[in-house]
Design goal:
two-stranded antiparallel ribbon; alpha+beta; 253 residues
Length: 253
């Protein structure tokens, strides 16, 4: 039985790709023959200074940061282009960092970076990182609130990066171990109530709260009633019985 789908992910495959660097995540052509090997072919000339390259429809997606080395079509030397934005399957245009030389129509590059296998691995790392953060934070915070936090995003990137490096059997990006220890210390403090995640609210009040009560002796039911105006305004785990005034209980007279 597959794992339950997560409603939110606290980091994205692009976050992990950028955090670990192209060399740490990108596959080479001889990496167990699991690279897609798709060929990207230009369909029109891209003069020097271009920020887009027209190409035949992509078979597989490409992440921002992927390096493509174009050659053939009479080019005297190979030319490298770096994607500046994600290119989805079926895309016929690539957004790239400003080109430093012309790339003619018919030039070809081989995808030796982002591919179906690596994309799936990056997504799995995001799911792993999200659930790890949830273990420490869900008892005090809602999932939807956690998904909006930059601190949560940072923790998830660190946890996902560490899992990805171990899975690829590669050296982690410099500083990842220190970041991991720092993230885990902060997550444990959140779990123990010693650290508040900034800019998002907890499920319940983070400190003791009290309600001011009025004794309505003439009432048959709910003689103790809350006076919300002079009580703590924090949300509680259970609804208080508000002081609606005696007119709400005229049937008790």
């Amino acid at each position: 039985m597959p794992p339950t789908a997560l409603q939110n992910l606290y980091c994205t495959p692009q976050d992990l790709y950028e955090q670990n660097g192209i060399n740490a995540a990108q596959l080479s052509l001889d990496d167990g023959n699991i690279a897609t090997g798709q060929t990207i072919q230009t369909t029109s000339d891209s003069p020097i200074g271009s920020t887009t390259i027209a190409c035949a429809a992509l078979q597989y997606p490409l992440l921002a940061g992927s390096n493509l080395v174009f050659q053939l079509a009479g080019m005297p030397n190979p030319v490298e282009a770096t994607l500046s934005a994600v290119a989805l399957a079926g895309a016929t245009s690539l957004s790239v960092v400003t080109t430093v030389t012309d790339i003619p129509s018919g030039a070809q590059a081989t995808d030796n970076g982002t591919n179906v296998w690596l994309g799936g691995l990056l997504l799995k790392a995001c799911k792993y990182a999200t659930e790890q953060v949830q273990i420490y934070c869900l008892p005090r915070y809602n999932d939807s609130a956690l998904a909006t936090s930059w601190s949560v995003n940072r923790w998830a990137i660190v946890l996902g990066s560490r899992w990805l490096g171990k899975r690829l059997r590669r050296a982690l990006a410099q500083g990842t171990d220190d970041d991991y220890k720092e993230a885990m210390a902060e997550l444990k403090n959140v779990q123990n109530g010693l650290l508040q995640i900034p800019n998002i609210g907890t499920r319940t009040s983070g400190w003791p709260y009290c309600d001011n009560m009025t004794l309505v002796d003439y009432g048959t039911y709910r003689k103790l009633r809350v006076e919300p105006v002079i009580s703590d305004q924090e949300n509680t785990q259970f609804p208080s019985c508000p002081d609606w005034g005696s007119y709400a209980y005229l049937g008790e007279w």
